[in-house]
Design a protein that fits this description.
- This protein starts with a strand and ends with a strand.
- A hairpin with a 4-residue loop joins strand 7 (67-72) and strand 8 (77-82).
- The protein has strands at 3-7, 10-13, 18-25, 34-39, 46-51, 57-59, 67-72, 77-82, 91-98, 105-108, 112-117.
- The chain is globular.
- With 118 residues, it is mostly beta strands.
- Strands 2, 4, 5, 6, 9, 10 and 11 form a seven-stranded mixed β-sheet that branches. Strands 1-3-8-7 form a four-stranded antiparallel β-sheet, with no helix packed on it.
Length: 118
């Protein structure tokens, strides 16, 4: 069973940047579509960004132009570069691996907390 571990969260002022990492162990991300989600207190978990197995990306409208998802299969790692952060970006951020051949996720990380102060 692959395990995903996120890191890189923290406290940052509005307008600042953070880079999140998601490292996989016990399995590979190669060939899998990978996702970043976030969950703010009292709100539903929402998709932030995704990158497919050949590097094509897609973003939620509320982060487009500010966040960049990337992957390094050799390092078994997915990244989320977050620029121009806003207080409304405050949330726990999770990475997920999509199961091959399905729309389901077969692994989630435990999350990393991002707090953006105004």
């Amino acid at each position: 069973q692959v395990q995903l571990v996120e890191s890189g969260g923290g406290l940052v002022q509005a307008g600042g940047s953070l880079r999140l990492s998601c490292v996989a162990s016990g399995g590979t991300i190669r060939g899998h579509d990978m996702y970043w989600y976030r969950e703010a207190p009292g709100l539903r978990r929402e998709m932030v960004a995704t990158i497919n197995n050949v590097g094509n990306t897609d973003y939620a409208y509320f982060v487009k132009g500010r966040f960049t998802i990337s992957r390094d299969d050799a390092k078994n790692t997915v990244y989320l570069q977050m620029n121009s952060l806003k207080p409304e970006d405050t949330a726990d951020y999770y990475c997920a691996r999509q199961q091959l051949g399905t729309a389901a996720y077969d692994s989630w990380g435990r999350g990393t907390q991002v707090t953006v102060s105004s």
